[in-house]
Amino acid sequence: MAMTDPIADFLTRIRNAQQMGHESIVLPASKIKQRIAEVLSSEGFVGSVASETDGAKSTLTVGLKYSAGKVGVINEIRRVSRPGRRVYVSVDELPRVRNGLGRAILSTSRGVMTDRQAREQRVGGELLCTVW
Q1: CA gap 38, 104 in Å, rounded
Q2: 103-108 and 111-114 strand pairing
Q3: Which of 2, 3, 88, 111 has the fewest CB atoms within 10 Å, measured from its CB?
Q4: Rounded to an integer, what distance in angstroms lies between the CA atom of residue 12 and that of residue 19?
Q5: CB 84, CB 16: distance < 8 Å
Q6: In whole angstroms, what is the distance from residue 85 CA to residue 110 CA?
Q7: Which CATH class is domain 6-131?
Q8: Global pTM?
Q9: CA-to-CA distance for 36 and 41, rounded, in angstroms?
Q10: Rounded distance, CA 96 to CA 116, Å?
Q11: What's the gap between Cα 102 and its chain centre?
């Protein structure tokens, strides 16, 4: 059976690996997953992001971050727009995740970015996920 939502699978892998205390996760790569991982890294939710290509297969390795006491940095990561129900927002409808403590990640015409960057550039797009 084909995977219908690779982004939800990616977010679930991060959630599960962090609960188990893993150092990093390795998963099949795609451009959108790479960009989401880079945004999460730049916002400080995950560590390093690296992609490797081995012939036709490419993998994405995402290092996970923990605070003191081996507690994961990510409290919650949730998929918003799904294949069955796409969620698009204009710049005026961008959500504030946890009063600005969290981030919404969007896919816009100018690439994948956070809600803060989208507000600065005055663009809306598909609301992929929220994280805090």
Answers
A1: 14
A2: antiparallel
A3: 2
A4: 11
A5: no
A6: 22
A7: alpha beta
A8: 0.93
A9: 9
A10: 9
A11: 12
